Amino acid sequence: MTMNECVTTQDTTQQEVAKWLNDREQWKHEMPVMGFLSQFLTLTPVTDSRFHSASTDGKKLYICPDYSATLSDTSRQFLQAHLIWHCVAGHLTAPLVADYQRWHLACDHEVNALLLALGILFPADALLFPVCVGRSAMSVYRWLEGHPNIAVETSMDIHPAALWHDLPNTYIDQSTVTLWRLRAHLVAKEPDALPARVAKFCEAR
Fold this sequence. Notes:
Structural class: mainly alpha
Domain Putative metallopeptidase: 40-127
Mean pLDDT: 95
Helix content: 40-55%
Number of strands: 3
Protein name: Putative metallopeptidase domain-containing protein
Distance between the termini: 32 Å
Organism: Halomonas qinghailakensis
Largest sheet: 3 strands, mixed
């Protein structure tokens, strides 16, 4: 997927937002836990030329409509699920690490491993390190230090903790982080809402 500069018409914006909303409606019927979690992020199209991807601050889900228009249905649905689970997984902030790109990749892997367990369809270019499935983001971060060519690994979003660089008026407050932790605990307690491994992950949040 190519992230091009976001210069968007009103028609494109309306069409793309409608797709993301329709995906949420589909989840309500097919995967209720995703329908439940998605309601806490307000879809917010961004046409600022500095922003050509997708991200979240835990309250809003920001999308560049032009970027969204390049995605297949599978990629778009996966990306929305991916951003929601960045929130659930506690990735709205980042620890003090030496390499933030490597941290982003580690977080992407952690989330995508959860999406795999949830049964979310994967696009062909989704990031996943099979030998690391089940490991924490920090464990994967350390493992990636030995990657022979980490530059070949790419993310399909902007890490929430780095969103301020592209959208300077956004910020992430601790109360939002806490709310998502509580939501993770809530869905973990719901009978049969999540696969056992995902429920255990949410309980530990």
